[in-house]
Amino acid sequence: MIIAGIMILLSGCQDKNLVKGMKTLDEIGPDPSTYNVLGGTGTGTLSEYISGKQETGSGVLSDGIAFAIYGEDTLVLSASKHDENADENTNVPAKSNVTACLATEDQLAASVSKIKTIIFDEDITAVGDGCCRDMTALTRIVFGSNVKTIGGNAVANCTALNTIIWSDITEIGDSAFSGCSQLSTVELPASIENMGIGVFSNCSAFTTLIANGNIPSSAFRGCTTITNVRCSDKTSEIGKDAFSGCSGLNALDLGNGLKNIREGAFSECAALPSLSSLPDTLETIGDFAFNGCSKLQTVNIPGNVQSIGSYAFQNCSALLQVNIAASDIPLTIGDFAFSGCSKLTGIDLSIRVQMLGTNCFQDCASLSNLTVNLAVIPDNAFKGCTDLVTVHIGENVEEIGNYAFSGCSKLTSIDASEKTRKVGDGAFLNCGELDSLSIPNSEAAIGNLILNGCSKLQSVTIGTKIIPKATFAGLTSLKYVTLLESVEEIGEDAFSGCSGIRDIPIPLSVTKIGARAFENCTALTKISIVSPDVTIGEQILAGCSALRTLEIGMATVPESAFEGLGFSELKVLKTVRIIGDNAFRDCSKVTEIFLPPRAKDEESGGVEEIGSNVFAGCASLTRIFIPKTLRKIGQKLFTGCEKLTLVAMEWDEYKFASEQKNVDRSGYSGGAWKDGVYIGYVQFGYKEEKWNNEKK
Known about the structure:
Distance between the termini: 109 Å
Largest sheet: 8 strands, parallel
Helix content: under 10%
């Protein structure tokens, strides 16, 4: 049935042949009287159709096809010429394929601009490329029952065409009816097996399509007035760009047999409001499939869908909710698939999602809560999700990509799983509300600048073997740092400028601290670096103006390691062996120093070597205990220690002098060593117990 108005119907047309004495259509068009000879019952012969019209011209086209013109506006094409006054055909060589371009045929030159109706008789089997193109007066075209093929651009740019009548067409070429801007009545038979690209592209008068088969690539691209698409269960595929740019499409029923929506099939369908009833048979949603559908609000992803292509729903700016049906079928979501969906508030990625593409939810500014439990959160996945507050990282997450959550300005906490082994560069860059972060996996690798701009971060728990350079640098709100026993290296500038940290215990597992690691941590009051195996870089505590207690246990204290610091309490463990030149020079607030002795039952421990100027300038130092493990002393240890009153030597006086080969014994007299080695009072044979009692 031909439906009045603007419609394309893909369905069978049985027993509806038009000419040569065959059974006629029951009804044609909104005004059957226009085609009265084809309506009703009767034989419907071609002679009946043209009854009352005078033949005004006839002949044979350049391709051998016979033609006859009736009145001024009806053209009949046949393998043999029809005579309205004879029942038999005249003797014209038979030819079943029309290949001529009518608009350029010399014999039709005087008539082509007036022709409104073209009829291809039943003995025609194919209409060639460009046959009827650019016939701007043409309003109706009738293909006989045996026409199987319509070539590319065959009826293109017939801007007045509004009615097509056909029955058993099997193939339509590229752009066959493109640009037929007034086309309002079309029935596409179910017999169609192949359609080219852009068959009905830029047919701007369509409003409704009912499809009973597959829809090929670009078939209705640019048909801006299509409002309704309904597919039968026989439709298994919608081709690339099939409805791209159909900006008026607002109702979509995809039937129950659809498997594939190809690339760009519904891109820029700006009026489409919902995809709540996608068929359960659907398996793939192609790249750009619904890109730019700016009024789309709800998408329900059926359980058989295996992949959502890259950019598939990008810039669907009204999209609120995406519901993923549970099933055992893994789902892959491509690059930028939902990026720019600025109103999207909810999607549960813990349901069968196996893989996300890069940038897949970038700039989804309304997304507020998120659960992710897939192995990899890719680069830029949630970048710019400015309303994202809560992210639950599932136990299966192994990798957080570069800039994955950067710019999520309301995100408050991140707890990586025990399996998370990589956090990429800038992963949480400019997450201004981030309050806490936990990365417990010792095997995790941390990228550069993962927290740069996280101005409210207060608490971190880190278990990674290596904390890279400047990882927490400049985070002035950071107060609480927990370094797990798995941490082995703290990089250069790792915590520099973290002016809120008061205490930071360094675990025994740490073997390296880079230069300036804690520089300008101006609130730091206490730090313990107790591992005997740790090596430290230059000025690791420079500018730590509030430091009061320093506890160290490294086997070797490097030159100038703590020079100029303002701590008042120094705790040196037995594991310290060597103290380098200037190590504590100008530490003007320390009042006493106890270098612990080795116990009787211990075979090792205690300071063995003290370099030159180690305590020089310690203006508040009043007393120091030096164990008998000491084997070497540098020059000018206590220069400027004006308050020093006791140098408590565990050594017996003469034994000390005899074993210290670098000391000028002749200069020893009255408790002062020659040449300013130290100034003050020396007591030999001083025991730890006495020191402790005096301290009390």
